[in-house]
Request: fold
Amino acid sequence: MAALREFVSVVVSDGSQDAGLAMMLLSRPPTNAMTRQVYREIADAAGELARRDDVAAVILFGGHEIFSAGDDMPELRTLTPGEADVAARVRREAVDAVAAIPKPTVAAITGYALGAGLTLALAADWRVSGDNAKFGATEILAGMVPGGGGMARLTRAAGPSKAKELVFSGRFVDAEEALALGVIDEMVAPDDVYDAAAAWARRFLDGPRHALAAAKAGINAVFDPQPGGR
Reply:
């Protein structure tokens, strides 16, 4: 099904140094806004990465300009109630599929990670961003709340008090504050984001894959949002 994906691609390194390193690339210019189709493609790509024996670690990347500005709001505003329910379901399935990839994952964040883009980044095991990146749980600005487990994932990263302040206000957070909050794990120069993410992922390329998968599943079982929750 990989050939049918329009906006999400999987690239697996065939070089000797990075054998086993894969990238899930989101490419829907100009802002990588996510539609129902994009979510379905993310879930499909995550499933491919989970199954492939030649993949040991995964980088989530939106390109050198922007990770994702979140949901495609013009599309959301046109949805019927039934279609909105489908959109919420496919968003949750995509985020959960990324979180469940049984391999170490790191989000390489450039530009902006807003709304559902932030939720997607929080589904990775680790996050690296440029020092000029901006983050925000911005759904409240459109009269919505974060879906796809976004509130639970943000609470897990930043704690309940700070998560409430961020979700209630929808304000932008710079990279320095995001690092202090635990929303990201490393802050680097903007041009170094992908390389820093790759350096992190390389640490696990030769690791015991079954043990890493079991360890990830065990930790996820403790911290991941409950099925059906926000």
Notes: The chain has nine helices and nine strands. The chain has a mean pLDDT of 93. Strands lie at 8-12, 21-26, 57-61, 105-109, 112-114, 126-130, 134-136, 173-174, 186-188.
